[in-house]
Amino acid sequence: MNDHQQVHPFRIDVPQAQLDDLRERLAATRWPDELPGVDWSYGVPVSYARGLAEHWRTEFDWRAAEAELNAFPQFTTRIDGQNIHFLHVRSPEPEALPLIITHGWPGSVAEFMKVIGPLTDPAAHGGERADAFHVVAPSIPGFGFSGATTEPGWDLSRVVRAWAELMSRLGYESYGAQGGDSGAVISPMLGRADSAHVAGVHVNGGLGFPTGDPAEFQGLTEAELSRLGQYQDQDRSGYAVMQATRPQTLAFGLHDSPAGQMAWIVEKFKEWTDPARELPEDAVDIDQLLTDISIYWFTGTAASSARLYKENQQSWGAAAEYSSLPHGVAIFPGDPGVRRIAEREHNVVHWSEFARGGHFAAMEAPDLLVEDIRAFFRMVR
To answer: How many whole angstroms separate alpha carbon 25 and alpha carbon 235?
Structure first.
């Protein structure tokens, strides 16, 4: 292994000056006006943002979150000219299946804090030893501790090539892939690109995209039609249009104002978490959410994470060749997945639908997600 292929241990250690700066900026926030009585329909209400910012400033303990993250072994390596940060948590079970799990936007490796233990050491969490995984959880290039990308071209297919190289570099001959959000696109792509080594792919959320052909809608249940309708929901897609067209302009506000970065992310947690939960903190642990937001802030990756949308705007929803690898899908409330559409391009052998949880399943319903991952990979081990 040459110098460029070396894997280096990594520890998160945000300088105290950055923590002090964050608190000062939050205290000095210039709050916008708002219309009376419109609640969340125009975006994040000022009263809500003020309350969350105050919690972030005075009660949230970054050092505790940092220690919790640092309890997982972390590393960096360079692949294709880009720094790649990843958690690598080996199971105590020697026969464990390697599993690469991928976040999306506005997520990070902090999403996985509640699932890594049960996945790597099931016996210690009431599970069966035979279900153990060696977990690799990388930060997508441009996100979190991988740091900013430094050249155009870091689209999803390039991320996929980096993941295949990472698993090879770690010595894993056969492995599984799992992901939600962007990870639910990256993981099936990885299955296609590295089919000789990927044993199976599990995603939470939708798998594949509708073509718009009217035949696709025939015979669907009301629930499935409702899920498909989300692909046409312009009201919820403004963030994606902005990030896919002018990510750099957007980044001035997000990179300079922690309240701006916080509001940009928390809106997605309001819209994408379990529809039965009114506010983000009803669906997820608020400090886990603030850990995620803090990672974006401290790493200064508002611009580079948004660029992932710009890099992929031409290819979103494009047709893919059929993948005969086994695929498993977990659908949580609010997810857009429809089995017929998933099966058009994927060999779906496992399909689950849950009544609680949401888009951020690893944070909202870690127990359900872990059990579904285990159940699917029993079929392919």
So the answer is: 30
Closest CA to 137 of 161, 92, 158, 107: 107
**Which residue in 282, 285, 240 sits closest to 264, CA to CA?**
240
Question: Strands, E, within the chain: which ranges?
Answer: 7-10, 74-79, 82-89, 97-102, 133-138, 175-180, 198-204, 323-331, 346-353
- The first and second tokens of residue 45, run together, are 């209400």
Phi, psi of 163 (to 5 degrees): -65, -40
Asked if residue 329 lies in contact with residue 376, where contact means CB atoms within 8 angstroms, the answer is no
Q: Is the pLDDT of residue 4 over 80?
A: no
- The pLDDT tens digits for 57-106 are 999 999 999 999 999 999 999 999 999 999 999 999 999 999 999 999 99
Q: Is the pTM of this model over 0.90?
A: yes
| Coarse DSSP helix, strand, coil percentages of the chain, rounded to the nearest 5 percent | 50, 15, 35
For the chain, first and last CA: distance in Å?
A: 29
Q: How far apart are CA 30 and CA 50, in angstroms?
A: 11
Tokens found for residue 247 = 């990510």
Catalytic positions are 181, 309, 359
How is residue 199 written in tokens?
A: 């044993």
Tokens, residue 288: 């886990």
pLDDT score for 358: 97
If one counts every other C-beta atom within 10 angstroms of the C-beta of residue 165, the result is 16
Say if residue 106 is preceded by a cis peptide, omega within 30 of 0: yes
Best CA proximity match to 285, nearest among 36, 121, 68: 68
CA distances from 83 to 26, 103, 142, 190 (A): 30, 17, 9, 19
Confidence band, pLDDT 50/70/90 cuts, at residue 218:
confident
What is the helix (H) or strand (E) element at residue 159, kind and residue range? Answer: helix 156-169
Angle CA 364–365–368, to nearest 5: 165
Distance (Å, whole) CA 232 – CA 228: 8
> 295 with 262: CB under 8 angstroms?
no
CA 194 to chain centre: 21
